[in-house]
Amino acid sequence: MANIAAQRIKREFKEVIKSEEVAKCAIKLELIDDNYSELKGEIAGPPDTPYEGGNFVLEIKVPETYPFNPPKVKFLTKIWHPNISSVTGAICLDILKDQWAAAMTLRTVLLSLQALMAAAEPDDPQDAVVAKQYKENPEMFNSTARHWTNVYAGGPNKNPDFDQKIQRLTDMGVMSHDARVALSTYNWELERATEAIFT
Amino acid sequence: MTHQHLLNCSNKLDLDPRFECSICLEYLKDPVLTSCGHKFCTSCIHTWMNVKQKNYCPIDEIILNKEDIFVDNYTRREILENNLTCPYKQCMQQLSIPDYETHVSSCYLKYSKSSAEDTTDSVVDTSYIKSPLHERNRQKLTVTVFPNIHKMQESSSHENFVCKFHAVGCSEVFKSKALLEKHYDLKTKFHLDLLFNQYCSNGILSSTQKNDSRLDPSRRNSAVMSGEDHLREVVQAEVHGSQNEENKSRLSGHTNGSQELKESLVHNTTSNANNSNGTAQSPFAKNQKQIEAYLMKNKAEESKLWDPSKNTDGKDSQKSACTSCADNSGLLKLLYERLVLLEQNRLELEIKVNKLESNLKEVGNVEDNISLKLCNGVYFWRLDNFRVKLQEMNQTNRYFYSACFYSSCYGYRFCTRVNISREDNQYLSLFIHLVQGEHDDILSWPFLGRIKFTALNTTPEMSLQDEVQSDRNFDSFKRPVNFFLNKKAFGFNNFIRVSDILDPGSGFLMEDDTLVIRTQVIEQSATFYATV
Q1: How many CB pairs under 8 A join A and B?
Q2: What b/e readout covers B402-429, taking b as 16+ CB neighbours within 10 angstroms?
Q3: Do B24 and A4 touch (CB under 8 A)?
Q4: Which of A3, A4, A65 to mutate to test the interface with B (most CBs of B within 10 A)?
Q5: For A102, which of B7, B9, B58 is closest by C-beta distance?
Q6: Active site residue A92
Q7: Burial track A103-137 (b if 16+ CB lie within 10 A, e otherwise)
Q8: How confident is the model over A93-151, as pLDDT tens digits?
Q9: Is the ipTM here above 0.90?
Q10: Is B25 within 8 Å of A11 when comparing Cβ atoms?
Q11: Closest listed residue to residue B155, CA positions, set B173, B141, B139
């Protein structure tokens, strides 16, 4: 990796470790390999959102041209969010694309992602299904996102109704994740989800 | 990899944010200022603006053109003027920000035992995390996990060398004598500072130091000790001497010590003068004289002050205590001067060694010359790598010249030349040139005699030999006056066929692709002037 990128990541790492967000457990950063090109980030779900109480893991890949080009970031933890793909974890955020600026750091990226979780942009979606639900049925969106947070990110809010529906489908031999995706997509209507899976 | 490890890896300093480039996060190198008031390294902002043609400030995204970026020499000066101290204890080096990281990563104190221990202790200390200035590598990290084992190993397998300035506050301990010596060399100023501080505080001493204070006098005078070591010993004795608290004995001890020091100074300077073998340069000698004069003066003054008859009442002794203080600083001054002197001496010796080395080289050359002079007119020219040379001759028409040899001890000087024949490029030409020699003025001109060329063959009968007689009318045999060598040569245009040499069966090329040409110059008798 280019020296400047590695040098900068070293310094940024220090910055993150010393930051007050780490002290508050809001963000976390870990190295994956020795040459500072791959890192693991963690952000806490922001309070007063369906993601509250969850812990979301991110994959961060630092390109050799960093900081002149943005780091490549995606969610490893499954998340129900209009700007994040529920399938791949890809993120739609301008600063990770054309609005990147060299003065931004991993810390600001993590904080921006946290802000994105708190304030979704349904008009610039990554996941059209989620965005549609967000706009048309915010109540349903919130409980779905909360359920996903509970299952994948260790959030505290269980939803017995949803769990029961998933159980029904898994009893039929469907993988629980597939069942959850189908049910979430069809606003937890068991019939339609079943139909979608088996046709 | 843990967070702790990464922090340990870092020897980066915590920069003042004013001096930090927000692109590379390091100190501003060749700082520039944008019209929107942000500072960057020149290379960083230009790289940024060239990537995908982004023409906005990375901080506030205000549109920037090349003319909105100004060189910020003010910040550059500020950065250079901002000095930091090396984080290793006792190093005390003042460093500018650009030098800081290089120094810290290579500071020799990094590996010395005491600072290693300092860092070991501070691993658990959270204050360390706030200022992670010490560079540590993984090895050291593992060491920190078992600090006791590490220490045990160290004490069992190594003899420790304690710095002799231990008594005045240098706590360095070394694993080898070499490291200790290096420490002395590098830390002279530091040690002198310690000594000075000790003097200024005027001998507040611990009970342990009292006991081992006086050194064996015979050892102090030992002639085996090197000049610098000797000086140190004496200085140390001096320190201990002044630490004795009993009033009278302290004072007398002090006089003894300083007296001795001065003697040793005089002794050393004179011995230096002897060593320098008469080649000592005048400023050096002058300096020595000055110091000696200074010493003499001091001695005279001292004897006045320390006259025992006057030293009876309390008032007087108080006064002498004060003067001893003043004398001490004079002494330190002397030490500094002595240091400069030794350094100069060292440099002189270094120059001398260099000179001797070059002389030695010259002698080697002379030896070569002698063999060329005493060859008695027979010269074997080894053309090694002949095929390579041949190729060069073919391609660039290059001439190859041999070394110059003499026809006899006081004779004519010649050199031989080969090249591809200009008449027929299948042939190699062989010529002989007269070269300006040392004895041309006593020789008779033109050269008269015979010249024998032989291309040696592995089978002696097959060697190719040709002989020529010099001719009085040829320019080639006249004395070379205007040029180093007579431009007119004499010899054979078509001496030997190239194909004959290259033919592997011919035997002209020796094993290692070398062609040997023997040239013999036979002077006619009575070549010298009649007076000889």
Answers
A1: 58
A2: bebbbbbeebbbbbbbbbbbeeeeebbb
A3: yes
A4: A4
A5: B58
A6: yes
A7: bbbbbebbbbbbebbeebebeebbbebbbebbeee
A8: 989 988 888 889 898 999 999 999 999 998 888 999 999 999 999 999 999 999 999 99
A9: no
A10: yes
A11: B173
Angle at B36 between CA B34 and CA B39, to 5 degrees: 40
B284 or B90, higher pLDDT: B90
Task: Return the CATH architecture of domain A3-118.
Answer: Roll (3.10)
Residue B207 to residue B168: CA distance in whole angstroms: 14
What pLDDT does residue A17 have? 80
What confidence tens digit (pLDDT) does each residue in B370-383 have? 888 888 888 888 88
CATH 3.30.40.10 for domain B17-81, yes or no, is yes
Contacts of B246 (CB under 8 A, 6+ apart): none
Q: Are A32 and A40 in contact (CB under 8 A)?
A: yes
Per domain, the residue ranges of chain B are 17-81, 207-372, 378-523
Domain boundaries defined on chain A: 3-118, 128-198
| Residue at token pair 């069809």 | A186
Tell which CATH architecture fits domain B378-523: Sandwich (2.60)
Mean pLDDT of chain A: 89
The CA distances from residue B119 to B90, B149, B157, B162, in Å, are 14, 16, 22, 20
Rounded to a whole number, what is the distance in Å from the CA of A38 to chain B's nearest CA?
12
